[in-house]
């Protein structure tokens, strides 16, 4: 095998990262504070339109801070997408609360608003919050869901870890709820190698999250502690990478969308394949191009792609199917299990060319034909 591996979503530098890191070194602020941490937060505020942003070590920590600030703790119920990555759920466990999993709708593959409303009308124990994932960078039916959360008096935390740059009616995912979270993990649209951002229009909450993220130090020179906190603040070195990455955020969204368009173009005439839908009035960032197969086994496609050095991965295994959550409550309609049984994410790195996508599509088409 001579060709270089094509990954699901590999880091893609803008070119200014090292220059800004050097500036950090010149300033000697090799610390979890400094000019670039502030600049990175400003760039997220300006881009997404949120009023406040806090840069932290990763998206999981940002979700944890959101739950802590909202006072969610032992035995509280927290609704969450079942069709998601575990990073969306771990914070609920850290807070000793109970995840209650909600299934998806076919229209968006994200949380079904009808199921959410039905549960909130009928449930005996009202959940404190909903953590909603915008899966694979595609917006959920977020306006409807935000309205339902308001109506029933539960907090909405948007897990926009995968969906930076995705919008609904022109408004950025991550800015509809009480809190939003972005991830800058190595595989995301933009990366700082590891990193996260917590956003909210509520300044007091972000101030409180800042307090918890820096060891909950009361304002005394000798460090007084009334509450416990965490060491979650982002390094100035990593924030320098983030600032350089934010300079190309729109380019990256447009390239991800272009990659999706190429997949669609090359696989258009294959009845066996359906792509992840995009809701009307929304713009997904198509972080990963995702598809399902009616007749072909996704495992067969995955093997065929691996043999030509191309990475692909089954759709997330729903949380309610995970051994860890075998006793958790789950409100189901069969959608996520069905998608999981027949779906695949394919290589979607922004460094890829149209020829790369054509080669991948040739392999997928041949595998589908051989069924
Ligand atoms: C949906 C989702 N939620 C949360 C996370 C956690 O983010 P991080 O890896 O930055 O902790 C990720 C990704 O890693 C994710 O894909």
Class of the largest domain, according to the CATH hierarchy?
A: Alpha Beta
Present as ligands are: pyridoxal-5'-phosphate
Stretches where pLDDT falls below 50 for ≥5 residues?
Answer: none
State the helicity in percent bands: 25-40%
Question: What is the element string, with H for helices and E for strands?
Answer: HHEHEHEHEHEEEEEHHHEEEHEEHEH
CATH fold-level topology of the largest domain? Aspartate Aminotransferase, domain 2
Supply the CATH architecture of the largest domain: 3-Layer(aba) Sandwich
The CATH superfamily title of the largest domain? Type I PLP-dependent aspartate aminotransferase-like (Major domain)
Radius of gyration: 21 Å
The average pLDDT value, as a whole number, equals: 97
Give the DSSP E fraction (strand runs of 2 or more residues). Answer: 15-25%
> Structural class of the secondary structure composition?
alpha/beta
Give the strand tally: 15
* Span between termini: 25 Å
Main sheet strand line-up: 1-9-8-5-4-2-3-14
The number of distinct structural domains comes to 2
Number of alpha- plus pi-helical segments: 12
Overall 3D shape? globular
- Main beta sheet strand tally, sense and closure: 8 strands, mixed
């Amino acid at each position: 095998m001579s060709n270089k591996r094509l990954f699901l979503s590999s880091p893609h530098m803008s070119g200014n990262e090292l220059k800004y890191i050097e500036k950090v070194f010149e300033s000697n602020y090799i610390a979890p504070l400094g000019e670039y941490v502030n600049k990175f937060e400003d760039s997220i505020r300006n881009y997404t339109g949120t009023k406040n942003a806090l840069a932290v070590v990763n998206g999981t920590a940002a979700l944890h801070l959101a739950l802590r600030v909202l006072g969610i703790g032992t035995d509280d119920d927290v609704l969450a997408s079942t069709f998601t990555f575990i990073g969306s759920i771990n914070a609920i466990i850290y807070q000793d609360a109970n995840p209650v999993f909600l299934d998806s709708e076919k229209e968006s593959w994200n949380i079904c608003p009808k199921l959410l409303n039905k549960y909130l009308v009928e449930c005996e124990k009202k959940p404190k919050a909903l953590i909603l994932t915008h899966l694979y960078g595609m917006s959920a039916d977020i306006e409807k869901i935000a309205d339902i959360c308001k109506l029933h008096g539960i907090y909405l935390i948007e897990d926009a870890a995968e969906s930076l740059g995705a919008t609904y009616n022109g408004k950025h995912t991550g800015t509809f709820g009480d809190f939003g979270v972005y991830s800058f993990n190595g595989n995301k649209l933009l990366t700082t190698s590891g990193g996260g951002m917590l956003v909210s229009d509520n300044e007091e909450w972000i101030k409180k999250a800042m307090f918890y993220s820096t060891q909950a130090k009361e304002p005394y020179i000798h460090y007084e502690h009334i509450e416990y906190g965490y060491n979650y603040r982002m390094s100035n070195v990593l924030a320098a990478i983030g600032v350089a990455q934010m300079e190309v955020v729109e380019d990256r969204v447009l390239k991800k969308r272009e990659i999706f368009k190429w997949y669609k173009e090359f696989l258009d005439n294959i009845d066996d394949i359906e792509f992840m839908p995009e809701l009307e009035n929304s713009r997904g960032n198509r972080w990963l191009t995702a598809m399902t197969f009616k007749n072909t086994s996704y495992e067969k496609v995955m093997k065929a792609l691996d043999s030509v050095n191309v990475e692909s991965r089954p759709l997330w295994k729903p949380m309610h199917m995970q051994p860890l959550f075998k006793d958790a409550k789950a409100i189901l309609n069969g959608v996520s299990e069905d998608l999981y049984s027949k779906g695949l994410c394919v290589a979607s790195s922004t460094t890829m060319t149209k020829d790369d996508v054509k080669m991948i599509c040739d392999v997928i088409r041949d595998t589908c034909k051989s069924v």
